[in-house]
Write a structure and sequence with these properties.
Layout (H helix, E strand, L loop, with lengths): L2 H4 L4 H14 L5 H11 L6 H12 L6 H24 L3 E2 L2 E2 L1 H5 L1 H20 L4 H23 L8 H26 L4 H28 L2 H4 L5 H4 L5 H9 L2 H11 L7 H10 L2 H19 L7 H15 L3
Antiparallel strand pairs: 1-2
């Protein structure tokens, strides 16, 4: 299903959130407005707000607090992107120059901080202590996940279990929070809240695995970032992990050499190796397995257009090429 079709069931909510995102980041500091406007106009899919909106409506929520929390979710996500691009020295974000390359590291970090603080200002408007607790726990986990990823750069011995723990902390946790918050706003039963949290967690895990896969087999024109960028940064992701632990001594030596230098290796040879070894196929299958778990978690919901859209979003996560 095309992405626009997935958003059709909540198109009014989605439109309102997009307007709130633009309205609420206003600052007296012109730099904040300029840089934030740059980030919000990069053409992101806003999947995390979408997850929250769909889960809230699928649980029959009829208020409007989900619009505020969806905005909060996007602010937190955007703040992490600003900070991550500085840490990773990423030249591009969604095919355009990353903010720190135009305004400097200091500005990117400070505007990221501004978005974090504005997010917490907005969430207090909902007046729900449970909501605030989840956001506090989530932002703490996101930071911890990024720290773990940084500590494991250039580490060829990283295993699949450790890799999943890292991506669930740095990426999937925000998806989990989005889905869970939708249920909380609707005052859904605890089993529904738990199941939707699992939906978000598994969806976010699969989404990040696919991002890591596309780094090796995607097109930079479609993904918006240079191919093999993760490898150039020394990030050890699932394709490399599988090849390293399943491959020959010679293949392990090639991987070690590749992740310990800050320049691209022979990308064509590496891509052929990852393909012929089955590492890319294995990675895609792992992502699909997580999506199966996400779809299974949605079985707690009664049939609705919102549930169907949530299911379609899960399929989109592993079928996309960007």
């Amino acid at each position: 299903m095309p992405f626009q079709a997935i958003t059709h069931s909540i198109r009014d909510d989605f439109s309102k959130v997009n307007k709130l995102i633009e309205q609420q980041f206003f600052s007296k500091a012109a730099l904040v407005n300029t840089l934030s406007n740059h980030m919000f106009n990069l053409g992101g899919k806003r999947l995390r707000p979408l997850v929250l909106l769909l889960c809230a409506r699928a649980c029959d929520y009829e208020g409007d607090a989900h619009l505020t929390l969806a905005t909060v979710i996007e602010y937190i996500h955007t703040a992490t992107l600003l900070h991550d691009d500085v840490v990773d020295k990423s030249p591009l974000r969604r095919g355009k120059p990353a903010a720190h390359t135009q305004w400097g590291n200091e500005a990117a970090v400070l505007v990221g901080d501004f978005l974090y603080s504005r997010a917490f200002q907005l969430m207090t408007q909902v007046g729900n202590l449970r909501v605030m607790q989840i956001f506090a726990d989530t932002t703490n986990t996101l930071a911890e996940g990024e720290a773990l990823q940084l500590l494991n750069r250039h580490n060829p011995n990283l295993c699949e279990t450790e890799y999943v723990q890292i991506i669930q902390a740095k990426t999937a946790k925000l998806f989990e929070a989005a889905a869970q918050l939708g249920a909380i706003l609707a005052q859904a039963p605890s089993e529904v809240e738990s199941a939707l949290g699992q939906y978000g967690l598994h969806l976010g895990t699969a989404f990040q695995i696919m991002d890591d896969l596309l780094d090796y087999q995607g097109s930079s024109n479609e993904t918006g970032k240079p191919c093999f960028h993760d490898l150039c940064e020394g990030k050890v992701t699932l394709p490399l992990i599988h090849l390293y632990h399943q491959g020959s001594a010679q293949q392990r030596a090639l991987i070690e050499q590749a992740i310990h230098r800050e320049e691209l290796p022979d990308t064509l040879a590496m891509q052929q190796l990852l393909t012929s070894s089955g590492a890319l196929r294995y990675t895609h299958q792992v992502a699909k397995d997580y999506i199966d778990k996400a779809l299974s978690a949605l079985s707690v919901l009664p049939p609705s257009h919102f549930k169907t859209s949530a299911e379609s979003l899960a399929h989109f996560a592993v079928e996309r090429c960007y």
